[in-house]
Amino acid sequence: MDQPVTAKPSEKLDSFTILLHFGLMIFAVLAWLTGDWAGDYKKISHLGFTVHKMLGIGTALFLAARLFHGFCGPEQARFSNWVPYTRDRLRMVLEDMRGLVSLKLPERGVHQGLEGLWESFGLAVFTWMAATGIVMFLFLIPGQKAHGAVRLVKELHEWGEWLVPIFLAGHVGAVILHALAGDHRWRTVFFLKEN
């Protein structure tokens, strides 16, 4: 019988990493919620587009800082320590998935196993949204319909209307399940003690 792969639990995340997560949480969710308002970019008066654009800029700034921090920040915040790209890390993801099927929550360090895979997916989604949003910020002309490559980028950006809620459902669902099981790590995002 295979022995389960265990990950060395990461130490607690530093305050800057938590701040970046908090900023991404606020700006990204608000940008996603205001996405439908952005359709008024075709009109001369386009308040919805302007609000969505400003929230998107905030998201892109927090995301850029988080990506930089993930490559150059402290050891426990670096992607190289949790993105599941090795056989052992992928095995942890599979073990976590098997555990969930048998109604057992994974007990791993921060960003290890399935949590690391899901966080990687979330960062990829928000990077996609920020990249396509920046292109529209630079080339979309308010008061006019989008044409050509800008229209294609706009359509690609709108995929986020489906990808963001999929990520949020998994992420928030996992946080709720862990909280119900007594793991109150979520409190650190609001700079509260875990209890």
TrEMBL record:
Keywords on record: Cell membrane, Membrane, Transmembrane, Transmembrane helix
GO BP terms: respiratory electron transport chain
Keyword check for Coiled coil: no
Membrane topology: Multi-pass membrane protein
Transmembrane region(s): 16-35, 47-68, 121-141, 162-181
GO molecular function, one term: electron transfer activity
Chief localization: membrane
Subcellular location: Cell membrane
Ranges where the Cytochrome b561 bacterial/Ni-hydrogenase domain occurs: 14-187
Gene Ontology CC: plasma membrane
SUPFAM superfamilies: Transmembrane di-heme cytochromes
Pfam families: Ni_hydr_CYTB
Protein name in UniProt: Cytochrome b/b6 domain-containing protein
